[in-house]
Amino acid sequence: MQRQAIRIGIGGPVGSGKTRLVERLLPLVQDAGLKVAVITNDLVTLEDAERIQKGGLIDPRLVVGVETGACPHTAIREDPSVNIEAADQLERQHPLDLILIESGGDNLASSFSRELVDYWIFVIDCGAGDDIPRKRGLGCLQADLLVVNKIDIAPHVDADLDRIRADVAMIRPDRPSLFTNLRDAAGAEAVFDHLRRSLLFHAPI
């Protein structure tokens, strides 16, 4: 089937804030008048999907959980067919503008197939250390947007935020990056504004 909805991938290591980013984006997307659905990926559980379904932020019917049964990057890069089918089915059943596809927690080498998504975000966090950008993982290097989360805790874990900013600028000289804290709703506003500008979507007239 021909895609109608823009498909946005969200990847990153375990605990970096992927699910929280989805939760923070949902009200912003819906307040803009856009129809959105969510697909989550986990190894052998539907925990992330159930968390979003129970969160009251979206009609539970618009949230689909995928059990990959293998390394998370397999289902978003090597063989994304299960995610493509889930997205296609959502579009057949609902009129949609956006589909957010969250990868299971993976390492810095994970990336999304262009067969699956139109645009992808990679999330890292300061709590994992200030050397993450210097490791030059594919996610940090190739993602359409890099989100550096949990900047508020950098001083508490001896992470040098200035060094992180300098390293990100060095490894992504021509690609956008955002530094944020997703503990409150305001932390996702810059991400949503960037997506609106980059993907040229807007509220229906």
Strand content: 15-25%
Round the mean pLDDT to the nearest integer and report it.
Answer: 93
Determine Rg (CA atoms, Å): 16 Å
**What's the assembly state of these chains?**
single chain
How many DSSP helices? 7
CA-CA gap between termini: 26 Å
Low-pLDDT windows of residues: none
Structural class based on helices, strands and sheet pairing: alpha/beta
Largest sheet: 7 strands, parallel
What share of residues is helical? 25-40%
Number of strands: 7
Largest sheet: spatial strand order:
3-2-4-1-5-6-7
Gross morphology is globular
Order of helices and strands: EHEHEHHEEHEHEH
Can you describe what's shown?
Strands 3-2-4-1-5-6-7 form a seven-stranded parallel beta sheet, sandwiched between helices. The protein contains seven helices and seven strands; from the N terminus they run βαβαβααββαβαβα. 34% of the residues lie in helices and 19% in strands. α6 links the parallel β6 (145-149) and β7 (177-179). It has 205 residues and is α/β, with parallel strands linked by helices. The mean pLDDT is 93.
What is the fold's blueprint, element by element?
Blueprint: E1 6-11, H1 18-31, E2 36-42, H2 47-54, E3 63-67, H3 72-78, H4 81-93, E4 98-102, E5 119-125, H5 138-142, E6 145-149, H6 161-171, E7 177-179, H7 189-199
Parallel strand pairs: 1-4, 1-5, 2-3, 2-4, 5-6, 6-7
What key attributes describe this structure?
205 residues; seven-stranded parallel β-sheet; 7 strands
